[in-house]
Amino acid sequence: xxxxxxxxxxxxxxxxxxxxxxxxxxxxxxxxxxxxxxxxxxxxxxxxxxxxxxxxxxxxxxxxxxxxxxxxxxxxxxxxxxxxxxxxxxxxxxxxxxxxxxxxxxxxxxxxxxxxxxxxxxxxxxxxxxxxxxxxxxxxxxxxxxxxxxxxxxxxxxxxxxxxxxxxxxxxxxxxxxxxxxxxxxxxxxxxxxxxxxxxxxxxxxxxxxxxxxxxxxxxxxxxxxxxxxxxxxxxxxxxxxxxxxxxxxxxxxxxxxxxxxxxxxxxxxxxxx
Length: 274
Hints:
This protein has 3 domains: 1-123, Sufe protein. Chain: A (Alpha-Beta Complex), CATH 3.90.1010; 127-188, BFD-like [2Fe-2S]-binding domain (Arc Repressor Mutant, subunit A), CATH 1.10.10; 197-271, Fe-S cluster assembly (FSCA) (GMP Synthetase, Chain A, domain 3), CATH 3.30.300.130. It contains 10 helices and 8 strands. The protein has helices at 6-13, 62-75, 80-84, 88-94, 103-120, 141-151, 156-163, 173-184, 197-218, 247-262; strands at 26-32, 37-46, 50-59, 132-134, 139-140, 221-229, 232-239, 268-271. It starts with 5 loop residues before the first helix and ends with a strand.
């Protein structure tokens, strides 16, 4: 038997916003009764892009009802832009957590929200994208990839918990494992903290002194930092660098690359006279 939080129980026994919004601005229908979970979400958007009302109808278990109820409570009063940032993890956390076997209910809620917002914006509903991997529940490779990427999943069991894929005949387990391996092998984007201009200048100075100047001096050259304007790094060449015909290549292929790698990826090095 699964352990449900008090908040899940509350939203299951006393679900909020059940029904359909009158004359809705956005409508979504996701899942299917054949798969065991189906959800219809309707939203009303007032002038200014704020969600004034949201209601749901669902066929599913306690977690499906609680997740849909929580979703409607979470998005009412939010702007469309704010609602678009909502994740399935946010829904689960709002409910005080969901059993791992029931995380697919929060995913269903996020899918309904995405579809309702697309409907509000007039974006035509697309047919299921990708190739069907799980025939039992009609889950595509792209749906699995998205779940793995957004929730950092690492096993077939976790994928089943989040998408239901693999929860039937199990013949797709090998394909699911291949998708997991492919997604987890993708390079992760580097998250860099925002730098103040003073911090940026200090890091540029330190990088020039530690990583760039020694190499230039080895060949009789040098470089001097003149100014930093936004992402423009203004420098003057010295020594042999000042008369070398390949100085521009050195600035772009060595100095700029080093500064982008170690300081900020959008820096541009420019030579100025001084």
